[in-house]
Amino acid sequence: MRIAVLGAGVIGVTAAWELLRDGHEVVLVDREAEAASFTSAGNAGLISPGHAYAWASPAAPGMLVRSLWRNDQALRFKPSLDARLWSWTLKFLGQCTEAAAARNTAAKVGLCTYSRDRLNLIAEETGIAFSHVTDGCLFLHRSQAALVAASKKAEVLRRQGVEVRTVTMAEAVAIDPALAPITNQFAGALYAPGDQSGDCRTFVRALAAKVAEAGGDVRFGTTVQALDISGDRVIRAVTDKGDVVADAYMVSLGVMSPFLVKNAGLDLPIYPIKGYSLTAPVAGRNNAPRIGGIDEANLIAYARYDDRIRVTATAEFAGYDTSYTEKDFRHMYATIRSMFPDAADWQRTEFWAGLRPMTPTGLPIFGRGRVQNLWMNTGQGHMGWTMGAGSARIAADLIAGRAPEVDTAGMMLPN
Length: 415
What we know:
Layout: E1 2-6, H1 10-21, E2 25-29, E3 46-47, H2 60-66, E4 75-77, H3 83-94, H4 98-126, E5 137-141, H5 144-153, H6 155-158, E6 165-167, H7 169-175, E7 188-192, E8 196-197, H8 200-213, E9 217-219, E10 224-230, E11 233-239, E12 242-244, E13 248-251, H9 257-260, E14 271-281, E15 292-295, E16 300-305, E17 308-317, H10 330-339, E18 350-358, E19 365-367, E20 374-378, H11 384-400
Parallel strand pairs: 1-2, 1-13, 2-9, 4-17, 5-15, 13-20
Antiparallel strand pairs: 3-8, 5-7, 6-7, 10-11, 11-12, 14-17, 14-18, 15-16, 16-17, 19-20
Protein name: D-amino acid dehydrogenase
GO cellular component, one term: plasma membrane
GO molecular function: D-amino-acid dehydrogenase activity
């Protein structure tokens, strides 16, 4: 079968790879000049079933309200006249109950664990080097009360088979000696030994090259403008470089996915949630972290990429704006420098902002609606790097008529 994969971030490229492995002819289309040039370009780098909690939780509404006058909240709400912002936010708030948070978290954990294992298979199969660290992640807490509460919260992960254990700061230092100078800042940590980290952009670009080497038709600098639909089938994808004709079409366009599929009768509940990251060179510094982690009080994540450190923070309900100013990074920049002052050449920091394709549940969207050859693989939100390889296998299995190997409850389009 000839399948057009629309979007060449981590979701689209891993899907293209799995479809090629299944024997399909693949056309991979993206508007950027290279793969992983939008959301996949600057993400946290953590591959983390051990932190696969649903963002919609009983604590989330308070964060959104406080963010109206405070700039240090992990979730920030910027009111606008965008009707989609308000409708999406209402759906998000509807998922902020304890029952919904537990249900959505359990589903996320299952997908994330499966996806981590699928990513490891692709990495082994292809030999791609992407600063892959497989020694776990540390989730640091600044008070004993927060640590106890976090360990209790982690029971939902443990019930899904994820190993998460509470460690003292002395034990955390044994895991990552870079924490030794700041043991006084934290009460302890949760350690997820099965978690990993790596450079998503490097991996995706190398895998896109392998897609092309394996016979995939890779078309960068090509913007998908519309889907031409007749009856219950897409007959072509219209682009600014001519038509793409295929037997089936997979939508992996992240935050742009809802606009492309409206004429297919689909109203995808995906909205951009803005995130910020900074990257600094290690440049011979002597106390860079060995493994990835999160300062849970500030929800600031960090990961080591060989000669660089990536730091990310903030989830901002701010529409399709990717601009930023110095003050957007002020809190995360000060925090990471207080944690690891000698870890990098912070004066050479590069800054970035991107848009996560979030659904209210935090779960991705798979399957098809009334249009029989139009498949979704989108909405992976803030965990696209963690979910990507598993999502690719799920999407490929669905196209092949096979039952996915992982439970997709809450992720499927209604037929």
